[in-house]
């Protein structure tokens, strides 16, 4: 090779070696209500995924099952905060999705207004109960608890569905007798309505399962084609979620500031929301988490809310294990 050609070849090799790697594209969907909102707001504003080398297109949904439905036709590649029961159901139906992370804890309380004649969960027979809509994990978990712990079948009460904001309004306007509602919402309502606690979803789930593990509200799912072609991108996104979880736990005041901007919350509500961070979020997919999800599916099936189990291959732990190595 001539000296000039050799020089050009070396220069080109050096240029390629030092050029920044092209960011991996990923379309991420999430529900802009409940606790998905807070995690998504922090993750977006702090650009944790982008810092891992991802080119993220954020796709937001106003309805809880929107991300789960959107992943089927590949409108999005990945959904975080997807209802765990709905995710397992579509996997059981043969939809090509993988569950790659447990991301939210199903923390909620069964409450009635102070002074209500309802003194126990058993008194809810024949009453109207506000809760998350059918298809959400909270709905499936709550109805399973009502039947399995308290003996209340689906026909014994009426469900009035709504997101957290609507549930709070239902209670304030006395459109429901009771509600299954999250502690953060209760904290935000404290100046408007005093409530009596009848039961804890987490505590009753442990009674139902006879295992000391909280129910998993939401998971991260990814289309099988995307993760097959981009396993490292999925691992990077999970690593970004783990870093978001840690940041939020250590910087609750900053989280509250972000929520005021992203969700138009007032300072009091934003602080109440941020204070619930550690009890609401997780970013884990160890063997115990997979076992917990499978146990949830068994109980949901027994309650008639699901028909079959997802295949073993639907629980993909490799991206999570890889994410733990990303610093």
What is the fold's blueprint, element by element?
Elements lengths: L2 H16 L5 E8 L2 H13 L1 H4 L2 E8 L4 H6 L6 E6 H9 L4 E9 L3 E5 L14 E4 L5 H12 L9 E4 L2 H9 L5 E4 L1 H7 L5 E6 H9 L6 E8 H6 L1 H20 L1 H11 L4 H9 L1 H4 E4 L2 H16 L15 H6 L4
Parallel strand pairs: 1-2, 1-3, 6-7, 6-8
Antiparallel strand pairs: 3-10, 4-10, 4-11, 5-8, 5-9
Report what the structure shows.
With about 325 residues, the protein is an alpha/beta fold. The chain is about 50% helix and about 20% strand. The protein folds into 2 domains: about 25-105 and about 215-325, Periplasmic binding protein-like II (D-Maltodextrin-Binding Protein, domain 2), CATH 3.40.190.10; about 110-210, D-Maltodextrin-Binding Protein, domain 2. It has a 6-stranded mixed β-sheet with strand order 2-1-3-10-4-11, with helices on both faces. The protein has a 5-stranded mixed β-sheet with strand order 7-6-8-5-9, sandwiched between helices. α12 packs across α13 (about 265-275).
Instruction: Determine the fraction of residues in helical runs and give it as a percent range.
Output: 40-55%
CATH superfamily of the largest domain: Periplasmic binding protein-like II
Q: How many domain regions?
A: 2
CATH fold-level name of the largest domain: D-Maltodextrin-Binding Protein, domain 2
Total strands: the figure is: 11
Oligomer: single chain
- Average pLDDT works out at 89
Structural class determined from secondary elements: alpha/beta
Query: What's the helix count?
Result: 16
């Amino acid at each position: 090779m001539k000296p000039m050609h050799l020089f050009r070849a070396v220069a080109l090799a050096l240029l390629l070696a030092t050029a920044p790697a092209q960011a991996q594209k990923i379309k991420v969907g999430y529900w802009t209500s409940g606790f998905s909102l807070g995690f998504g707001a922090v993750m977006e504003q702090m650009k944790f995924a982008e810092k891992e080398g991802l080119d993220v297109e954020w796709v937001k949904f106003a309805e809880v099952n929107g991300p789960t439905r959107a992943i089927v036709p590949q409108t999005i590649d990945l959904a975080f905060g997807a209802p765990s029961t709905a995710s397992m159901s579509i996997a059981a139906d043969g939809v090509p999705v993988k569950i790659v992370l447990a991301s939210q804890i199903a923390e909620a309380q069964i409450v009635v207004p102070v002074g209500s004649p309802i003194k126990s969960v058993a008194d809810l027979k024949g009453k109207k109960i506000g809760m998350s809509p059918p298809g959400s994990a909270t709905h499936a978990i709550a109805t399973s608890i009502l039947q399995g712990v308290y003996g209340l079948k689906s026909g014994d009460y009426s469900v009035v569905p709504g997101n957290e904001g609507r549930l709070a309004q239902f209670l304030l306007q006395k459109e429901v007798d009771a509600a299954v509602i999250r502690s953060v919402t209760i904290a935000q309502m404290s100046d408007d309505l005093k409530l009596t606690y009848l039961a804890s979803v987490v505590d009753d789930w442990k009674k139902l399962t006879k295992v000391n593990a909280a129910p998993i509200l939401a998971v991260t799912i990814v289309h099988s084609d995307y993760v097959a072609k981009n396993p490292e991108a999925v691992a990077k996104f999970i690593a970004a979620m783990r870093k978001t979880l840690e940041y939020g736990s250590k910087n609750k005041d900053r989280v509250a500031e972000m929520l005021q901007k992203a969700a138009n919350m007032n300072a009091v509500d934003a602080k109440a929301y941020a204070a619930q961070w550690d009890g609401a979020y997780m970013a884990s997919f160890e063997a115990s988490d997979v076992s917990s999800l499978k146990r949830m599916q068994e109980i949901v099936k027994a309650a008639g809310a699901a028909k079959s189990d997802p295949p073993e291959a639907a629980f993909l732990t490799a991206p999570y294990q890889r994410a733990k190595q990303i610093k």
